[in-house]
Design a protein that fits this description.
With about 210 residues, the chain is mainly β. It has one domain. It contains one helix and 14 strands. About 25% of the residues are buried.
């Protein structure tokens, strides 16, 4: 099945993983070393030859047809632990209508800059301390992904009796372009190996030493 929409949509690919560490890990010193693989198993979609192909998505839905943004979120399997389910660890395909305004997804906002780029903004969501306020992260262009690292620690009081935890987030965000050609795999239950572009990543590391 193939659909050509009248207006082009900003297509954003997000890869995400996270760790939950204990106080014994002491923030930076003993954190597990993480390297993104060259491929991950995906059930969302991929872009090739200016076409976005979905594994299983209703491209005839009116919400999709009228949307301005399509966001693909792929979790790396290392993130799918029981203690990380507070945000719902699921691969997602989300279509958003902007009405000329910023579009929110996860901890980000996206805004069109021109016909070849979009702006990515951290929206001020916090999972403990330090508290961060919204700010512009970068301008995203096709072929130049952004890798973002952030961390927090839970702000439980000592009197609560709860163990303090440290949260590490690692994202790769890639703008795939403004597209209007969409299709589905013939096998709607099919998953596939999706390559991750690592060679030209711009990196922003906002992690702090938390004790």
């Amino acid at each position: 099945m193939e659909t050509i929409t009248k207006k082009e949509k900003a297509v954003v690919q997000i890869y995400k993983t996270r760790f939950v560490l204990t106080k014994a890990d002491r923030g930076f010193q003993n954190r597990p070393k993480f390297e993104w693989p060259n491929f991950i198993q995906s059930s969302t979609g991929f872009v090739a030859d200016r076409r976005l192909s979905f594994a299983n998505y209703n491209i005839e839905n009116s919400n999709f047809i009228e949307s301005d943004y399509v966001i693909l979120l792929d979790y790396h399997p290392i993130a799918k632990y029981l203690e990380n389910t507070f945000m719902g660890d699921q691969d997602q395909i989300v279509s958003k209508y902007s009405n000329g305004k910023k579009v929110k997804f996860d901890i980000f906002q996206f805004e069109k800059v021109n016909e070849s780029s979009i702006k990515i903004i951290y929206d001020g969501t916090n999972f403990g301390v330090p508290k961060r306020f919204p700010f512009d992260l970068s301008i995203l262009k096709v072929g130049i992904p952004l890798r973002l690292k952030m961390n927090w620690k839970s702000d439980y009081s000592f009197s609560s009796g709860m163990e303090r935890k440290f949260y590490e987030y690692d994202y790769i965000i890639e703008f795939m372009g403004f597209l209007n050609l969409f299709s589905n795999f013939q096998n709607k239950d099919q998953s596939f190996n999706k390559p991750i572009e690592l060679n030209h990543c711009k990196e922003i590391d906002l992690r702090k030493i938390l004790i």
